[in-house]
């Protein structure tokens, strides 16, 4: 039993325990029935001793999802206003995505990059057409997409005979947990204990063009890496001319402009990529999260000065861009662009207005930041306990940077669901404020 519990408790999305997986080709139905039976009798134990405890997990396991809703093993329903951390932009178990996953899994899962992969070529073409980029390297996660970007920057520099190629990164940034990306990340907690960090990064304040310009004399600089909207850092939105200003500085200094759109991409801000809204084409664009709607896939797109930097043997991944991932992501991209993204800007603006009204009498809420369906409600004090309270009220949210309620709801959220989100969260934050006053 302990092993099976570990399987359920240990996954962001539920996986079938091995004993319910059918072997026969048409065993899906009975496997599902056995799984449902397993879930009906399933008791969530204390956290599994078999998992390395890297996550502060919440004591709940979800067993199915539909649209913006997740259901736990007791069939309690929760609104997912964080979308698996900005991943399920099309909602949970989008029918077209589920169909593609099932059909492609039946046909072919993996071959490796030793061979051509037609779905990978189609997905790359689609992403390039959407973004104005030239070509793509596929990875399995956001951090790996950024690893590729950092390697491109170093290779670009080394070809210019720069011995210590250096990337400009921002305060408040988050780029991942691998050694290179955590070195680029501006979070002491993420870096603590992992010294020596990688050399080759210089940090400046976010949204400060003058600070970047001041580095023009530094001959080691090869690139600027920035999130168009900072997500983990607390939903920070730069001035409208910031990306264009960085583009101009990069052009003037022969630096690569590298945009981390792992969280802001795939429709999240109301454009397919946030840089499109700013009319800026970077040299490197990384994305992941919403690209697979839950299937792990990332991408590093290049154009301009970064085109042609990577050649045969410079980089690789066994799984990256495999047939299952690419067929799934292609369906995701088509579903997002068909009819979902158009509504995102209006939905986000409606939510911002509704929250602004709901909190107009609450000085504890000091600011509401929003771009598309990335929302940050800034409180004047730490509020991590809101996560548990919201979950008890059937709402999944996230608190980041200690005092920012971060909302990344599925882009398919409808009007009734948005109203439910506003009503539930504003009641919770009002109650939290009342208690703080009494205390
Ligand atoms: C902007 C940004 N970059 C990179 C990452 C890392 O992505 P992953 O967790 O898929 O490695 C994240 C994850 O939150 C992110 O938000």
UniProtKB/TrEMBL annotation:
InterPro entries: AcOrn/SuccOrn_fam, Aminotrans_3, Aminotrans_3_PPA_site, Class-III_PLP-dep_AT, PyrdxlP-dep_Trfase, PyrdxlP-dep_Trfase_major, PyrdxlP-dep_Trfase_small. Keywords: Amino-acid biosynthesis, Aminotransferase, Arginine biosynthesis, Cytoplasm, Pyridoxal phosphate, Transferase. Pfam families: Aminotran_3 (PF00202). Pyridoxal 5'-phosphate binds at residues 142-143, 174, 260-263, 318. The modification N6-(pyridoxal phosphate)lysine is found at residue 289. Its EC number is 2.6.1.11. One of its GO terms (molecular function) is N2-acetyl-L-ornithine:2-oxoglutarate 5-aminotransferase activity. GO terms for biological process: L-arginine biosynthetic process. The keyword Protein transport does not apply. Its main location: cytoplasm. GO terms for cellular component: cytoplasm. It is found in: Cytoplasm. Binds 1 pyridoxal phosphate per subunit. Its cofactor is pyridoxal 5'-phosphate. Pathway: Amino-acid biosynthesis; L-arginine biosynthesis; N(2)-acetyl-L-ornithine from L-glutamate: step 4/4. It comes from the Bacteria. N(2)-acetyl-L-ornithine binds at residues 177, 317. May also have succinyldiaminopimelate aminotransferase activity, thus carrying out the corresponding step in lysine biosynthesis. Homodimer. This is Acetylornithine aminotransferase. It comes from Alcanivorax borkumensis (strain ATCC 700651 / DSM 11573 / NCIMB 13689 / SK2). The lineage of its organism: Bacteria, Pseudomonadati, Pseudomonadota, Gammaproteobacteria, Oceanospirillales.
């Amino acid at each position: 039993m302990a092993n099976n519990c570990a399987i359920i408790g240990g996954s962001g999305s539920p996986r079938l325990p091995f004993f319910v997986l059918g072997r026969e080709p048409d065993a899906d139905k009975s496997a599902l029935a056995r799984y449902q039976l397993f879930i009906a009798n399933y008791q969530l134990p204390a956290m599994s001793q078999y998992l390395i405890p890297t996550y502060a997990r919440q004591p709940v396991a979800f067993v199915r999802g539909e649209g913006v809703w997740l259901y736990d093993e007791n069939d309690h329903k929760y609104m997912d206003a964080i979308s698996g951390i900005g991943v399920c932009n099309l909602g949970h178990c989008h029918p077209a995505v589920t169909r593609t996953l099932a059909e492609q899994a039946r046909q072919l899962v993996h071959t490796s990059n030793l061979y051509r992969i037609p779905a990978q070529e189609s997905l790359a073409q689609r992403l390039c057409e959407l973004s104005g980029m030239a070509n793509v390297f596929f990875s399995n996660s956001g951090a790996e997409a950024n690893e590729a970007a950092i390697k491109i920057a170093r290779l670009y520099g080394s070809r210019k005979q720069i011995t210590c190629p250096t990337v400009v990164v921002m305060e408040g940034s988050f780029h991942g947990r691998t050694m290179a990306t955590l070195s680029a990340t501006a979070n002491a907690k993420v870096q603590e204990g992992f010294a020596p960090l990688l050399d080759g990064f210089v940090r400046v304040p976010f949204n400060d063009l003058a600070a970047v310009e001041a580095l023009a004399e530094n001959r080691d600089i090869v690139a600027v890496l920035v999130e168009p909207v900072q997500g983990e850092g607390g939903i920070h939105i730069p001035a409208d001319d910031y990306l264009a200003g960085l583009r101009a500085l990069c052009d003037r200094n022969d630096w690569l402009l590298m945009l981390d759109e792992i969280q802001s991409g795939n429709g999240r801000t109301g454009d397919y990529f946030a840089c499109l809204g700013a009319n800026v084409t970077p040299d490197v664009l990384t994305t992941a999260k919403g690209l697979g709607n839950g299937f792990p896939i990332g991408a590093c797109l290049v154009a301009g000065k970064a085109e042609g930097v990577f050649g045969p043997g410079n980089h690789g991944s066994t799984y990256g861009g495999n047939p299952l991932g690419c067929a799934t992501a292609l369906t995701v991209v088509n579903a997002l662009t068909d009819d979902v993204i158009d509504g995102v800007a209006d939905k986000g603006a409606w939510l911002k207005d509704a929250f602004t009204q709901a909190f107009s009498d609450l000085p504890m809420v000091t600011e509401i930041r929003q771009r598309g369906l990335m929302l940050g409600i800034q409180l004047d004090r730490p509020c991590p306990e809101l996560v548990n309270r919201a979950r008890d009220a059937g709402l999944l949210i996230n608190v980041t940077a200690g005092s920012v309620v971060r909302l990344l709801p599925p882009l398919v959220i409808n009007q009734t669901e948005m109203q439910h989100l506003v009503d539930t969260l504003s009641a919770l934050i009002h109650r939290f404020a009342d208690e703080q006053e009494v205390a």
